Amino acid sequence: MSIVFAAAATACGGPETADAGCPDPATLTGESTGTMEHVRYLADDALEGRDVASPGERCAATYIVDRFEAAGLQPAGADGDWLQPFEVRTGSRLGDDNALVMAGEETAPGADWAPFGFSGSGRVEAALVYAGATLPPDSSEAAAALEGRIVVLDLAAADATGGSLPDDPHFVASLAARRGAAAVILLSPEGTDLPEFDGERRPFVPIPALEARGARADAIRTAAQAGETATVAAAVEAAMGEARNVVALLPGSDPDRADEVVILGAHYDHLGRGGAGSLDPDSRDIHNGADDNASGTAALLEAAERLADGPTPARPVLFIAFSGEERGLLGSAHYVSHPTVPVDDAVAMLNMDMVGRLRDNTLTVYGMVTAPEWESLVRGVNEARDTPFQLGLLPDGYGPSDHSSFYGVGIPVLHFFTNTHTEYHRPVDDWDTINGEGLDRIADLVADIAGTLAGTGARVADLTPVESQPPAPAAEGEGSGRGYGPYFGSIPDMAPADYGVPLSGVREGSPAERAGLRGGDVIVRFGDTEVTDLYAFTYGLRDAAPGDRVEVVVERDGQRLTLYAVLGERR
Ligand SMILES: [Zn+2]
Predict the structure, then answer these.
(1) How many A from CA of 291 to the centre of ligand 1?
(2) How many angstroms separate the alpha carbon of residue 194 from the centre of ligand 1?
(3) What does pTM read for this prediction?
């Protein structure tokens, strides 16, 4: 975070205060016009990669509000404002009671030890037990020795001996908790960075989890090998911030169609300085997100301007710039569950995410299964262009972007995409990789499709919504990024859940289906694993093996059911 921003952030109220710290667009956009003008501003280093709820993202919101206002649109966020704020977790922060007591000496977190940002909170006095570089297999004698103890695991030793400790401290701490540990301390080699709190969003593990390095680690290793008693206290809380969707409306002329809103959307957040989600995980450089998704936001602004300048549509058109997409479609999920403009009668949602890298004039459009009229409508509008696109029309209504939130409630969707590339989710996704001419043309195409639906011409185009099916099967635990372990066949519902893992379905003929699980069930226990969330479920599954007979407890219609599944081989 730059100094200037720090000032603005602390003084932050509405967008007006953010202005003070935001760069003047004229100083950043050079000679660019049209969509490239917007891309140059949104993807400039000055906005520091637009991480959710960050000062850079606020400046992006201010820029978007100014463009919507200049286009003559109406504010349609919360309470008549442009913005729809919602809370997001931005990281972790230390609570009051953090301490390590060994041999009568009490130390506070500092240079040589600290709790992880995902540490559970609590105070534990127990014997230390040295587990070396590996966690013993479940229900082994060695695992029993961990019960109720402070388990010390040696990442340093793993390094030295090539031990098999996975490199994911969150997984290791969850595993130790499942083995019955009262707390866990990971020892790291000298010079290792201590846990980051900024940007830590993984669920809290149920036990205190610390990291120690250097001389402190050596002292802990010796004490653990001697089985000495220690006290570990950790207090770690979620740091919350405010994210904002930006919402604008172009009213329609036909009062009988006032509810038949046509929605255009694009997310404007990105990864900030990397971390979770980055494909350059060790880099802390600015991830400018020019294609992902300054391009889609730019096309949204251009389409808004074009439609506002054109003939008044019969149906209203809603423009939404979403926040929190990179963190799990948070903004679109929030909008769908808290619509400021009702979506019950929404005609369609057109989503633009990564539309800045048009190559060989080829444009991919997902969503064909969500309404039978889509193919002829999209082809028709495309063929009416001076230079029609080479269209790749694909069926999926679901996918890794905001249209999924709308298809999930039965609204026909289109997702526009110019395909992935090697700069994706890396600091090098910069404005000079963007095909500005192609992007302008895509904005035009989307505006024309929206105009056709909204009725800027002689008539409105109607769609026949297709009942949304559960999302296409993806590897379990896809939510948490890795498809490991035996095969079960459940399809997690990716919408945020308070507790457990809600299912949107099960795969045909899968162990889950054979065990009697079905869509709507909420998995709350998997074998010995208390399933607090998708992470816990993924780790529980990863820890089991093909052929294992597992007890699965689900909640269904307010009842708890115990089912038994025999896990399969993942193909
Ligand atoms: Zn994206």
Answers:
(1) 8
(2) 30
(3) 0.80
Ligand 1 centroid to residue 204 C-alpha, Å:
26
Quote the ligand 1 centre to 434 CA distance (angstroms).
15
Dist. CA 353 → ligand 1 center (Å): 5
Residue 348 Cα, ligand 1 centroid: separation in angstroms?
20
What tokens does 12 get?
């932050």
Q: Specify whether the CB–CB gap between 123 and 100 falls below 8 A.
A: no
Interatomic CA distance for residues 557 and 538, integer angstroms: 24
Q: Residue 352 Cα, ligand 1 centroid: separation in angstroms? A: 9
Q: Which residues contact 502 (CB under 8 A, 6 or more apart)?
A: 492, 493, 495, 520, 521, 522
Nearest to 418 by CA among 376, 371, 374, 360: 360
Q: What does the block give as tokens for 325? A: 């997409």
Distance (Å) from CA 401 to ligand 1 centroid = 7
Are 447 and 393 contacting, i.e. CB atoms less than 8 angstroms apart? no
Q: Collect the ranges in the chain with pLDDT lower than 70.
A: 1-20, 138-139, 156-167, 467-485, 493-498, 570-571
Q: Convert the pLDDT of each residue in 129-170 to its tens digit.
A: 999 887 777 667 778 888 899 999 987 665 555 444 556 788
CA of 369 to the centre of ligand 1 (A): 22
Q: For residue 97, list its beta bridge partners.
A: none
Q: How far is the CA of 207 from the centre of ligand 1 (A)?
A: 34
Task: State how far the Cα of 352 lies from the Cα of 358, in Å rounded to an integer.
Answer: 13
CA torsion, ordered 477, 481, 485, 491, to nearest 10 deg: 20
Q: How far is the CA of 429 from the centre of ligand 1 (A)?
A: 12
pLDDT, the chain, mean: 87
> 């008693």: which residue's tokens?
229
How far, in Å, CA of 534 to CA of 241, rounded? Answer: 23
User: What DSSP character marks residue 330?
Assistant: H
Crossing angle between the packed helical segments 436-454 and 34-42, to the nearest 10 degrees: 110
Cα 345 to Cα 44, 262, 263, 305, 432, distances in angstroms: 38, 9, 11, 24, 40
- Domains recognised in the chain with CATH numbers: 11-91+241-454 (3.40.630.10), 96-234 (3.50.30.30), 486-569 (2.30.42.10)
490-513 confidence digits (pLDDT tens):
877 655 566 788 887 787 788 888
What is the C-alpha to C-alpha distance for residues 356 and 71, in angstroms, rounded to an integer? 22
What was the pLDDT predicted at 540?
A: 81
How many A from CA of 326 to the centre of ligand 1?
Answer: 6
- How far, in Å, is the centroid of ligand 1 from the Cα of 1? 22
The residues that bridge with 350 in the sheet, in sequence order, are 264, 414
User: Tokens for 233?
Assistant: 């206290």
List C-alpha distances in Å: 123 to 59, 204, 207, 258: 42, 15, 9, 58
3-state secondary structure of 118: coil
Residues with Cβ within 8 Å of residue 389, at least 6 apart in sequence: 361, 362, 363, 382, 441, 442, 445
Kindly give the distance from the C-alpha atom of residue 461 to the centroid of ligand 1, in angstroms, as a whole number.
Answer: 29
